[in-house]
Amino acid sequence: xxxxxxxxxxxxxxxxxxxxxxxxxxxxxxxxxxxxxxxxxxxxxxxxxxxxxxxxxxxxxxxxxxxxxxxxxxxxxxxxxxxxxxxxxxxxxxxxxxxxxxxxxxxxxxxxxxxxxxxxxxxxxxxxxxxxxxxxxxxxxxxxxxxxxxxxxxxxxxxxxxxxxxxxxxxxxxxxxxxxxxxxxxxxxxxxxxxxxxxxxxxxxxxxxxxxxxxxxxxxxxxxxxxxxxxxxxxxxxxxxxxxxxxxxxxxxxxxxxxxxxxxxxxxxxxxxxxxxxxxxxxxxxxxxxxxxxxxxxxxxxxxxxxxxxxxxxxxxxxxxxxxxxxxxxxxxxxxxxxxxxxxxxxxxxxxxxxxxxxxxxxxxxx
Length: 367
Ligand SMILES: Nc1nc2c(c(=O)[nH]1)N[C@H]1C(S)=C(S)[C@@H](COP(=O)(O)O)O[C@H]1N2
Ligand SMILES: [Mo]
Prior knowledge:
The protein has ten helices and 26 strands. The protein has 367 residues and is of the alpha+beta class. The strands form six sheets. It has an eight-stranded mixed sheet with strand order 16-15-19-20-12-26-22-23. The chain has a five-stranded mixed sheet with strand order 2-1-11-5-6. A four-stranded antiparallel sheet has the order 3-4-8-9, with no helix packed on it. The chain is elongated, with a radius of gyration of 27 Å. 34% of the residues are buried. The site of the ligand Nc1nc2c(c(=O)[nH]1)N[C@H]1C(S)=C(S)[C@@H](COP(=O)(O)O)O[C@H]1N2 has 14 residues, from loops.
């Protein structure tokens, strides 16, 4: 009897001990070495730091000084993404190769599912970019990891899951445009096709067709294409990726950069501007919407020119859809305005002057 009792006490202790162990495992902080190192051999590629690409394994990332930060971001659908990310900062990783993140114009992150995004220079300069290998103290699962970029305080679209590659680019940023093409007038001139985006059939024009009709498609000096949208989003894509896709031309939020194989997070709805080399495209309808203007309200010529990045010139040429053109000195255009309506874009030189153009296609800076 006495002996039985002696056994019973330690048994209770063992059960309690197991429960405590079990709870702490649920908390995610007491994983075994083996559980923590499942992805150690996975690698990401660093492109643009050296003549040859560099492969960095997760175990090499783990050797670097790390930070752990809790962060939340809201997806475009309103859901909240929350993480407790552990990993080195991008600058810590770059130190290893003797460079700084500010040395680059664009840093672009690529994922295993075809997603990619360029980090704007303001984020590169001001934010913590965590190359995370743990979330909540545990390895990041296959749908998100093994490596995820986390930028606390920034939109979830920068939190690239399944990171495979980082491109460091030093190409110059957008150039000052010398011509401005109105998407409202240009897109209807091209033939649209029906494409499948998700479950939906949408009417869209090939980006290639737009560029070959209105810009210089053979300009190989162009590396990046820049877009902005009416909700304030700015994006850039490599020319190569941009050229594979489409622009949706009808329905809510058109024009929209999209495509059958383009990950949803890469689409640009309500495109206002598109810069392709020295050709700028502008959707006057989206611009008017962004400025909360009603259809038919006048937009000052000087504001429109500013919007696309100060297309400064002494003289401007206004060209309509039929190729007719008229020319004005900048000084003559102080009262000039543009109007968008469902029938297109019209130009009024202002101050009661003759020369209204009712089907404006583009404006060129004349040097
Ligand atoms: N690899 C990859 N990462 C991605 C995306 C994606 O489609 N693929 N979408 C981005 C966008 S647009 C959002 S809003 C968030 C969504 O975060 P979640 O997938 O953790 O919910 O992931 C970002 N990272
Ligand atoms: Mo998103």
